[in-house]
Amino acid sequence: MHSLILAATVLLLALFGYALGRSRSRNLAVASGQPLHSLPTYYGGYVAIWCGLPAVLVMAVWLGAEGAIVRALTVQSLPAALVSDDPDRMALLLTDIRNLAAGSIVSRDVDPALQAAADHYQSLRQTGFASMVVVVLACAMAGLVWARRRVVPGLRARNHVERIILWVLVACSTIAILTTIGIVLSLIFETLRFFEKVPLHEFLFGLHWSPQTAIRSDQVGASGAFGAIPLFAGTLLITLIAMLVAGPIGLMSAIYMAEYAGSRLRSTAKPILEVLAGIPTVVYGFFAALTVAPFVRQSGGSIGLDVASESALAAGVVMGIMIIPFVSSLSDDVINAVPQSLRDASYGLGATQSETIRQVILPAALPGIVGAFMLAISRAIGETMIVVMAAGLAANLTANPLEAVTTVTVQIVTLLVGDQEFDSAKTLAAFALGLMLFVVTLGLNLLALSVVRKYRERYD
Amino acid sequence: MSGEPDYAARLRRRHRSEMRFRFYGLLSIALAGVILVVLIGSIVLKGYSAFWQTHVRLDFAISAEQVDIDNLRETNWGGLVKATLRDMAPGVTGRRDKRKLYQFVSPNAGYDLRDAIAADPGLLGTEFSLWVKASDDIDMLTKGHLDRTLPESDRRVSDLELGWYDRFVGEGRIELRFNLDFFTTADSREPEEAGIQGALMGSFLTLLVTLALSFPVGVMAAVYLEEFAPKNRWTDIIEANINNLAAVPSIVFGLLGLAVVISLFGVPRSAPLAGGIVLALMTLPTIIIASRAALKAVPPSIREAATGLGASPHQVVMHHVLPLAMPGILTGTIIGLAQALGESAPLLMIGMVAFIVDTPTGFTDPATVLPVQIYIWADSPERAFVEKTSAAIMVLLAFLACMNATAVWLRRKFERRW
């Protein structure tokens, strides 16, 4: 909160600099009779940028580094009795010190040494913040004064300002790249640590998934097996069910809307699909768990089938419903891209409309439709909330849609929700699963794009 | 000649298959519509009753000696409520029966009494009545979600409680009232006390962070890529990258948030700041793609005219192209934010799934958001949480509908054909 106030102060200073630069350039131009190179606003902008930008950058770096430095200084000052080599214990100790300093509950008895450490931590934080305020404000003031002195009628202010703006734009456009790099690096880094504990072949080909690692050696049911095949199978089963629902319904409604429907039906049907697409996945999850799953269970029971209450069928069907608009809007675009001349030629040969669709339009649009289905599959694989709420937790290796199966995303969530140490194989397994998920969805997307690009018929 | 009836039959067959095909198409669309109606309908039917809450009228006669008026915290308010309940149902003996009686009203009824006395100390020494919330089981009974015909052992409400209930109804002590608390309290373990204010505030703060980060960055990135970037390998890579990011599963962004935002940068867990950063990274591709489309839609004649009048490339963009593209950009931003509002999977990863009873007031307070609150409630076993969950979903859908309607309105109002 205090940092926000500081940022606001810097912003105010920059605004002041803007006014200062603008009026000074005008006054100088009038006084010297020399024409200004740029409009006065650019001189204002010049001063404002030199006042605000360095200060904000310094503040960002400071805030990023402060935590680590304060932590290191606190550890250094700790009495030897409290220090231990175990990183987990140290992390716990530091958390306690921080909580004590903040006045919240700590997990151990407060002895004088701990209290002293907390006081030291608190004073370090305060000194750190005070010096940050001083440095940042000094930066802003120095920039303001320096830039103001450089404002003379001959200064090419517009070019300066525009160059800086261009660099800011470039920086913004690279954030997308940085995000991807961040995803890839964090996933790979943690996954490598996971494979130090669990061999790669066991993860990829193991048939048993039971990520509870034993705390005691004689514990029952805590084997710590990390064979991911049941998860992949469960994901595939649910995705298959989803596509069996979404594929026909989505494709047929796209065909009907593109080829048959008049503008009135289209103007009602399109919003229906858009609303389906806009409903949050957690709502679908609720629907699956509380409406569809009991319904499936009851109707299965009434014809003598034993259906699990978290059956793959319920989760898959609802996931299919979620994907219908995705399939239909992509297919709609593809079908509309098929040129009218093909239809006209087919009608001219005496084909009915449905024959034209089945034998001319669909083959022509096939690459696009395949691409759309691939994108839909990748969406289904990565979908989380529906399966977290409606699919099971236990890893069953089965192809029976009436049983409960679990998926990759469900396991990522269950492994990471709740407090646990960051280093156990259990936590790291989530990152390995995440990497698999990322690679598979990325692969499907790239494949879909290349299918569309490679097999697209060129009509003009 | 012999071929002619054959032709007719074939033609009929072909027409029949045409009709069938047409029917399947119509059926799919109708199916989508029916599913939507069932989905919304089931939620509304389950949830509309959560906006009302069963209240019980309790009669108090509290003397001034029983209460230390200067130190209201010290008084045993729960005890006073219990005494009143004992008076209302005379003849209840035995520990278990008494406990059942006490559970007739919400455990927080004592606080309601305290607040009433604090607001009007003149009540002391007089006889007054106060409407307090009934417990969730009684609430469900009133709303007809409990089947009275079941055998007692299968019911959440015993015959004894049913007897009290029926008597209180006869005495006019039971009433359904509008549940304003649903909007003004945060989460609670007691279904009758739980509200969505905390989650709404968390969603608001999170979206504020998301907007503050993703809107400027997204627009500036789009301006660079569309207006200034040279067409080379590097910009191709950025473009492909943005399209791929848009297709990355949301849960992977959660892993990124856990590994980078929380572990590396040290942003506090469960904070709207962390959630906002993660959602901003997710929303960025949507905003960039929409902004680029809006910028592309501005005709070259505008740029040429501005350039012809002596504007620099930057002035052309900042003074002319960007303002004209702004409605489209805002539409895209609102749609992106609506997606972010409904998103929950990545927030589970960064600890926004905790049970939080305080309404967050700052960007670093522990918080949860509306969709995650829905997820938490959906996991709770009490029947009363089902209706709370559905009601929270209705609120969430209402917000999403408003945002999307704004986007549509913006597009309609400012869309220009050049």
Strand and helix map with partners:
The complex is a heterodimer of chains A (460) and B (418).
Chain A lengths: L1 H31 L7 H38 L9 H16 L9 H39 L6 H41 L2 H6 L3 E5 L9 E4 L2 H32 L2 H16 L2 H22 L9 H25 L3 H9 L4 H30 L2 H6 L17 H9 L8 H31 L5
Antiparallel strand pairs in A: 1-2
Helix pairs in contact in A: 1-2, 1-4, 2-4, 2-5, 3-4, 5-15, 7-10, 7-12, 8-10, 9-10, 10-12, 11-12, 12-15, 14-15
Chain B lengths: L2 H45 L4 E10 L15 H12 L6 H8 L6 H11 L7 E7 L2 H7 L16 H12 L3 E5 L2 H4 L12 H32 L4 H15 L2 H15 L7 H26 L2 H9 L4 H30 L2 H5 L20 H9 L4 H32 L4
Antiparallel strand pairs in B: 1-2, 1-3
Characterise this structure.
The complex is a heterodimer of chains A (460) and B (418). With 460 residues, chain A is an all-alpha fold. Chain A folds into 2 domains: 2-155, no CATH class; 223-455, MetI-like (MetI-like fold). Helix content of chain A is 76%, strand content 2%. Chain A has helices at 2-32, 40-77, 87-102, 112-150, 157-197, 200-205, 229-260, 263-278, 281-302, 312-336, 340-348, 353-382, 385-390, 408-416, 425-455; strands at 209-213, 223-226. The radius of gyration of chain A is 31 Å and the shape is flat. The mean pLDDT of chain A is 84. By secondary structure, chain B is mainly alpha-helical. Chain B folds into 2 domains: 57-179, no CATH class; 197-414, MetI-like fold (Orthogonal Bundle). In chain B, strands 2-1-3 form a 3-stranded antiparallel beta sheet. The radius of gyration of chain B is 30 Å and the shape is extended. The mean pLDDT of chain B is 85. The interface between A and B is large, with 90 and 87 residues.
CATH architecture of the largest domain in chain A: Orthogonal Bundle
How many domains would you count in the coordinates of chain B?
Answer: 2
What characterizes the major β-sheet of chain A?
Answer: 2 strands, antiparallel
- Poorly predicted runs of 5 or more residues of chain B: none
Q: How many strand units of chain A?
A: 2
The CATH architecture of the largest domain in chain B: Orthogonal Bundle
Binned, the helix content of chain B reads 55-70%
Widest beta sheet: strand line-up of chain B: 2-1-3
